[in-house]
Design a protein that fits this description.
The protein is mainly α. The protein has one domain (2-146). Helices cover 59% and strands 11% of the residues. It has 6 helices and 3 strands; from the N terminus they run βαβαβαααα. It has helices spanning 10-20, 31-41, 65-71, 77-105, 110-121, 130-146; strands spanning 2-8, 24-25, 57-63. Strands 1-3-2 form a 3-stranded mixed sheet. α2 links the parallel β2 (24-25) and β3. α1 (10-20) crosses α4 and α2 runs antiparallel to α4. The longest helix is centred in the middle third of the chain and has 29 residues, at 77-105.
Length: 147
């Protein structure tokens, strides 16, 4: 196995660990893994001079030696930012869908629904503040009503 680190937000790291284990075993047969290896195979340095990777933490990622030999593992600054945005967006979509189902269709209070999000993704208030989840969900609701 080949091991490397990837700068990311704390909750992005926790989400990846929840999905792929700790250390994160990036596989080519998952939706996120396919995007990761697509970025590795097609590096972009277009914005590298402007991109600041000032993320709070780093995720430890492993890939098999055969995948490493076929595809590599180096992400440019631009691709690292794009991968983080992709995972964050994917995660937030899952959270919004979960909250929508629980709050809108099952009548669960938002605070209890957020607790369920914490349970499902192995997170807590220190990793992803409830207020942040609530505000993101409210923005999502406003956008979906306006559409």
């Amino acid at each position: 196995m080949i091991t490397f680190t990837l700068p990311c937000k704390i909750y992005t790291k926790k989400y990846l660990e929840n999905c792929f284990g700790n250390p994160i075993n990036m596989r080519n047969d998952s939706f996120i893994g396919k995007f990761f290896f697509q970025l590795v195979e097609h590096p972009s340095v277009e914005h590298d001079l402007k991109v600041k990777l000032d993320y709070e933490t780093e995720a430890v990622i492993t890939i098999t030696q055969s995948l490493f030999l076929k595809k590599g593992y180096i992400l440019s600054k631009t691709n690292t930012r794009e991968f983080n945005r992709f995972v964050e967006g994917y995660f937030k979509d899952q959270v919004r869908t979960m909250l929508d189902t629980m709050v809108e269709y099952n009548g669960v209070y938002i605070t209890r629904a957020i607790d369920s999000v914490y349970d499902k993704f192995g997170m807590d208030e220190t990793v992803l503040p409830a207020e942040m989840i609530k505000k993101d969900y409210q923005r999502y609701k406003k956008r979906s009503k306006a559409a």
